[in-house]
Amino acid sequence: MTAFAVTWATVLRTVRDRTALFFMVLLPVAIIVVLGVTIRGFDEFRVGLVPAGRPGPLAQELTSDLERAPGLRTRGYADAADARTALRRAELDAVVLVPAALDEEVRAGREVTVTVLVEPSGSTGHAAVSSVSAVVAAHAARLQAARFATEQAGGTFDGNLAVARRTGHTSVPVTVRTRTVDGQSEFLPLGYSYSTPTMLVLFVFINALGGGAAIVGTRGTGVYARALAAPVPTGALVLGETVAHLLLALVQSVVIVGVGAVAFGVGWGDPLAAAVLVALWALVGTGAGVLAGALARTPEQVHAVGPASGIVLGMLGGCMWPLVLVPGWLSTAGHAVPHAWAVDAWTTLLSHDGDLAAILPDLGVLAAFAAALLSLAALALRRRLTSVPAR
Amino acid sequence: MRVVFAITAKDLRQRLRDRSAWVIVFLAPVLISALMALAFQHNSEFRADLGVVDLDRGPAAAGLARALGGPQLAGTVRVRRYDDAGAARRAVDAGRVHAAIVVPEGFTASVRGGGASPVTVFDSVDFGLQAQLARAVTESYVAQVDADRLSVATAVAAGAPSRDVARLAAEAARLRLPEQARPRGLSDDPLKVISYFGPSMGMFFVLFTVGFGARGYFVERDQGTLDRIAAAPVGRGVLLVGKSLSAFVYSLAGLVSVTVVSWLAFGARWADPFGVAVLGVAMAVAVVCLTALVIALARSERQAEGLASITVFALALLGGNFVFAASSTPAIRRLALFTPNGWALRGFTDLGTGVRGWAAVGAPLLGIAAFCGAVVAVTAVLLRLRRPR
């Protein structure tokens, strides 16, 4: 009962702290939104479109073809200088300058060059040029047909262009079909389904670490010393604080899971597997937080070191970017921290439709991390409370 | 001035005795920048390993393979040949190639007007851009083939005698598409990941100085230090300048350390060292202004700590310190311009892409100045409202 009284006091104090609530709920959700909006559209080339000054119908048609092309995410720019600046700042992969005299040149029987600006050293731009070339070639095919028909059968270019468009609709071109061979991604799904589970992992850990400052603060005020004089067993204090931090970590997890599901449409996969994963991760965070609370000398130390180490561990563990993107040795090093195993488990659940059995190896490692951290935390806190009564 | 420097030196000594201050402003940003530099050292290059299966063995299929190996895609595309579609499919499935193109038997015949067999692209969900590239190159090539077929069909539909189809097809095969896309390179430097995230992480952690400064003020107030200083012949202005100067020096030192380490150890590049320096100074001034605002808003050490934390994370989130601004949506990029760190990062981006002088830092300096002006005005109003009557 004494342990639960300690738990209740700690939970109540945290819930009344508006700053703590900001870090528990508002900040993770805000970052989920920003990342969710940003991490998408990686299967498209970002292309800036600078239309011709006074475009004729052919230039307009080419612009529309580019805007509608699958695989291209286009953005219009009225000014070529603005588009160049966006390209330089890496906001775009390429910029298409639709020639002002396109209509006149084509009608005069001359060849037209559509300039595509790219970063010379970045190969993404050159790949984007290939996508633009495919659209330009499809447009040019109709122009070639109209020009050829005019030469061979007479009539006007515009009349034969209309014939080419009709013929294009009715003829059977050589098609390019796509077959997806490997439908199981090694990444989390893009958008909110990426940002929500990774930020759950990152923030539950950081918040739990930050919670260690409350333990240091309570030590500093002498509350533990007075409680021990009451007498309250040291074990009850350790258990009470640990359960309080676990409850807070679980509440934060449930809030993020709920917001993700309701507001962002994140499917969390197999419910049983997801629940076990959330619970184990909360235990890992609790262990780290209580350990920080036992080891640090001042709350400021926890505030300074907690977020910094939480972010570094999160980066190493693949919360900021998928570990399959980094060099092999860094990915291996990343699996020295628990975050990587949690992100792997979420990837299996969300991208491979995995179940509890599929993530058992990850859960096993997380359980080992949780057991080690909780044991160390309990020992360290017990030692701190008994050997230095005033702190 | 001697008193100002004495206050500044005392504050700096006090701060540097706290090891957590070293961690947050010097160690953490360098460590995180190093991680980012290591993680993305080879990621600026886009590569596509594409498999090709030529079941046609005719000249048209060979032309497609040549298009993949053309000079425009040299250094981007690496082609591996497979004997049959099954082998190519397995290679994509195993991740040995990002995508594979299978040219069907009879492809060359279809160019001459025979039945049109589809060309197949095998792709994998994790390599969308590479698959898009494989499709685009194939479609570009096929478009020329289709253009010839369409030319003959249009000529016939427009009145050319249908008995001349063979002659028309031969003539159409000699045509060249009248519209071609041609790449042209910009002359600027490519932006390196570390040139952005070095200063970005430096700024993020330097913003924590707002919390140190504001908390320190309330600690000294509660301990009576401020009253004792006020009793001495030292004006409030001198005290304020001394404390501001210490926050400025501390912030600037943090930014200098991360930019120098990013430059020397991780190869960050900016076109104009003077531009880097003025952006660092401007950010340090912004930190001082924000510290004053938090002190004016808060009533206790605890409140100051909370307000400072919220300010730091809100600015970092909006300003683009967590995500590469260029990957964000235009709306998020616009929001970043309401923050000093967002402006500074724009300046660092421009300096990192070879822009120099006022063209790179002019707008960011004005943006940061406007932000600081607004913060100082709000602080002044708050202090006036709170002054005991």
Describe the structure in your own words.
Chain B: It is found in: Cell membrane. Chain B: It comes from Streptomyces roseirectus. Chain B: Keywords: Cell membrane, Membrane, Transmembrane, Transmembrane helix. Chain B: It is a multi-pass membrane protein. Chain B: Its main location: membrane. The complex is a heterodimer of chains A (about 400) and B (about 400). Chain A is built from 15 helices and 5 strands. Chain A folds into 2 domains: about 5-40 and about 185-385, no CATH class; about 45-170, abc type-2 transporter like fold (3-Layer(aba) Sandwich), CATH 3.40.1710.10. Chain A has about 400 residues and is α/β, with parallel strands linked by helices. Chain A is elongated and about 105 Å long. Chain A has a 4-stranded mixed β-sheet, with helices on both faces. Chain B is elongated. Chain B has 16 helices and 5 strands. The model of chain B has no long low-confidence stretch (mean pLDDT about 85). Chain B is of the alpha/beta class and about 400 residues long. Chain B has a 4-stranded mixed β-sheet with strand order 2-1-3-4, sandwiched between helices. In chain B, α3 (about 60-70) links the parallel β1 (about 50-55) and β2 (about 75-80). Chain B folds into 2 domains: about 1-40 and about 190-385, no CATH class; about 45-175, D-Maltodextrin-Binding Protein, domain 2 (3-Layer(aba) Sandwich). The two termini of chain B are about 30 Å apart. At the A-B interface, α2, α4, β4, α6 and α7 of A face α2, α4, α5, β4 and α6 of B. β4 (about 110-120) of chain A pairs parallel with β5 (about 180-185) of chain B, so a sheet runs across the interface.
Would you kindly provide a brief summary of this structure?
The complex is a heterodimer of chains A (391) and B (389). Chain A is an alpha/beta fold.
Helix content of chain B: 55-70%
Number of strands of chain A: 5
Strand order of the largest sheet of chain B: 2-1-3-4
- SSE string of chain A, helix = H, strand = E? HHEHEHEHEHHEHHHHHHHH
Q: What is the makeup of the main sheet of chain B?
A: 4 strands, mixed
Most extensive interface between two protein chains, with residue counts: A-B, 115 and 119 residues
End-to-end distance of chain A, in Å? Answer: 24 Å
User: What proportion strand of chain B?
Assistant: 5-15%
Global Rg of chain A: 30 Å
Helix/sheet category of chain B: alpha/beta
Shape of chain B: elongated
How many discrete structural domains of chain B?
Answer: 2
As a percent range, the share of helical residues of chain A equals: 55-70%
Oligomer: heterodimer
Protein name (chain B): ABC transporter permease
Main location (chain B): membrane
Domain ABC-2 type transporter transmembrane (chain B): 20-379
Transmembrane segments (chain B): 21-40, 193-218, 247-268, 274-298, 310-332, 358-383
